[in-house]
Amino acid sequence: MTADHIDLATQWRRHLHQIPGTEFDVAEAADFVARTCTDLGWEVTTGIGGSGLVASLTRGTSPRTIALRADMDGLPIEERTGVPYSSKNVGAMHACGHDGHMAMVLGAASVLAKDISFDGTVRLFFQPAEEPGTGAEAMIADGLFDRFPTDEVYGLHNIPGLPAGEVHTCPGPLMAAEDNFEIRIAGRGGHASAPQHVIDPMVVGAEVVLSLQTIVARSVDPLDSVVVSCTELTTDGARNAIPDQVVIRGDARTFTDADSALVETRIREIAEGAALAHRASSEVIYTRVFRPTINDADCVAYAAAAAESSLGTDKVDAVCRPITASEDFAAYARAVPACFAFLGAGEITDGGAAGGGNVGSGTVGGGTAPLHSRDFDFNDAILGAGIDFYTALVTARLPEGNRS
Ligand SMILES: [Zn+2]
Ligand SMILES: [Zn+2]
């Protein structure tokens, strides 16, 4: 790949960095992406699942189709990087590097349109609302795969803390599901000095919080990974008044649908049982936000081969450890064979207003602040690796002279 493509992708990335939106409100980025793809000769369809868009480019006659996916949303965080191309949109910033994800796919769009031959159709999925976990599903519900048939989908996420430019992935579960729960314990409040007249929901709530930790310890297969975290406990009590109600909120991570179902069942049983034991009552609201990201084994093999050929065998780990964070890419992987992979962004730096992020230093290994930090800035030094990986993948999956 020529330096021109990287220069262009760097300019695009820094422009996108300045115009972040959040959730489905990403019109500025979507407009820029649509315009850029159209200028490069791609056929663009906008307004899919709200602000999502698809760009397609067909060469030759093969019916085979692969998709590269980028997320477009930033986060409701006030930027503190101090870089000259900082966010112009108050209260929003690209703190997860989705500006870099768009730039890598746009960079690949540029190379594929100008310099690379392939036989088949490449699609680019640009989705809103990755952070809340609802954008991919919105595009799929809007007929994404009916309107744009696709054989395989691939995506990358930059990961501070992994060596810059390395690709890590694994077959099967790569990232966890995220479920949220709310447990309402209803008692009968009263004077703190007269417990004989009340049904104290605090005592029940405290028991529930501790008992929830037995789900992982006593109910889940010890060879599975599950996290159950209580994150909020609120009451309507006062210093000298026992409350009527306690609300416990929390977050559970699992890697299989069966474990997600098990966690829900046990939470309901524990809440109901503890309430019953103390003459209180309970209600549980359990919601599934993200599904687990499950990679197709064949797609992982194709992605690993493309990464090895484009980046070097020492830059690829195709059997990496899964992580308990969650990713909206999961929705595509439930619909068609897919592979999601981590792209190393280099060492995690301290960040800080003065010397945060990589400040566009452009040196491989420059590193970044952690994801979702006010000091985070995508490491432009890894743009080339992402573009090379994507273009190698397309040429391997849509080879010329293979019409089978
Ligand atoms: Zn994020
Ligand atoms: Zn992200």
Q: Sheet with the most strands?
A: 8 strands, mixed
Instruction: Provide the gyration radius in Å.
Output: 24 Å
Shape-level CATH architecture of the largest domain: 3-Layer(aba) Sandwich
CATH homologous superfamily grouping of the largest domain:
Zn peptidases
Strand order across the biggest sheet? 1-2-4-3-5-16-6-15
Which structural class best describes the helix and strand composition?
A: alpha/beta
What proportion of the residues is helical, as a percent range? 25-40%
CATH class of the largest domain: Alpha Beta
Beta content: 15-25%
- Helical element count? 10
Low-confidence stretches: 352-365
What value does the average pLDDT take?
Answer: 94
End-to-end CA span: 29 Å
| Count of DSSP strands | 16
Oligomerization status of the protein chains: single chain
State the CATH topology of the largest domain. Aminopeptidase
Number of domains: 2
Shape: elongated
The bound ligands are:
zinc ion
Keywords:
binds zinc ion; 2 domains; 404 residues; 8-stranded mixed β-sheet; alpha/beta; 24% strand; Alpha-Beta Plaits; 33% helix; Aminopeptidase
Write the layout of secondary structure elements.
Elements: H1 3-18, H2 27-39, E1 43-48, E2 52-59, E3 65-71, H3 98-114, E4 120-127, H4 135-141, H5 144-147, E5 152-159, E6 167-168, E7 172-175, E8 177-186, E9 190-191, H6 201-219, E10 227-235, E11 241-242, E12 245-254, H7 257-277, E13 281-290, E14 293-295, H8 297-311, E15 316-317, H9 330-335, E16 338-344, H10 383-397
Parallel strand pairs: 3-4, 3-5, 5-16, 6-15
Antiparallel strand pairs: 1-2, 2-4, 6-16, 7-14, 8-12, 8-13, 9-11, 10-12
